[in-house]
Write a structure and sequence with these properties.
Elements lengths: L1 E8 L5 H20 L3 E9 L6 E10 L2 H5 L4 E6 L12 E9 L12 E6 L7 H5 L3 E6 L5 E4 L5 H16 L4 H19 L5 E4 L6
Parallel strand pairs: 4-9
Antiparallel strand pairs: 1-3, 1-5, 2-3, 4-5, 6-7, 7-8
Length: 207
């Protein structure tokens, strides 16, 4: 099976674009499940005002990912009324879907990474507090560490933490990632907005 890492982003757009990212991610997740593609959330950013996704980085694993992503990579358009500004006239809201470079695991010595387990916190029921399912990955030479408590599975959290750490070590910190995506967004906006790869309509995000 092949792996790819993609990002859905509002491209620093208004709150409505974050609303679109959140709902398109739901559609994307459903499409992955239907196509038997495994996916893990590596990183997510939420806006402070409406608690919607402004960006989400996803690791995909499956067969024929190139074919699957052909209808996702690029500009995605939602046609609908603003859920936040009742009298706003704009109805076309764009977000971007970009592929990111997969971190090269062989560039880092696995023996330099240590793992610690801990109890997860937050939602998830009683299991969250009783099982040490969360994992912290620490890169000993640099002291950089990340935590994953996304899954109830310790094995899955270790996998996510490792990918998250590799991304961070290779310069994909949040600020640098924003700059990278913004450059891609600026380069593609003028062309892609006139030719979105996907169009969703209405409150139900129908295609």
């Amino acid at each position: 099976m092949r792996k790819k890492i993609i990002q859905l982003t509002s491209g620093r757009g208004p709150a409505e674009c974050n609303f679109v990212v959140t709902n398109v991610f739901k559609k994307f997740s459903e499409a992955c499940t239907k196509s038997e593609i495994k996916f893990d959330i590596i990183e997510r950013e939420m806006d402070k005002d409406f608690h919607q996704l402004s960006s989400v980085i996803i690791e995909l694993e499956g067969n024929d990912l190139n074919t699957f992503l052909k209808t996702w990579l690029g500009a995605i358009l939602w046609i609908g009324k603003s859920p936040y500004r009742k009298f706003h006239q704009r109805k076309n809201w764009f977000i971007g879907c970009f592929e990111l470079e997969i971190p090269k695991e062989n560039s880092i010595n696995p023996n330099e990474i240590i793992y610690q387990t801990m109890r997860s916190s937050g939602n998830g029921g009683q299991n969250v507090n009783k099982v040490n399912s969360a994992v912290r990955a620490i890169h000993q030479p640099s002291g950089i560490s990340v935590v994953s408590m996304d899954s109830r599975s310790q094995h899955q959290n270790k996998k996510i933490a490792t990918t998250r750490l590799l991304l961070k070590l290779q310069g994909f910190e949040t600020n640098k990632l924003k700059d990278l995506v913004q450059k891609k967004w600026n380069n593609q906006t003028s062309i892609a907005r006139g030719n979105p790869v996907k169009i969703f309509r209405g409150d139900k995000f129908s295609e």
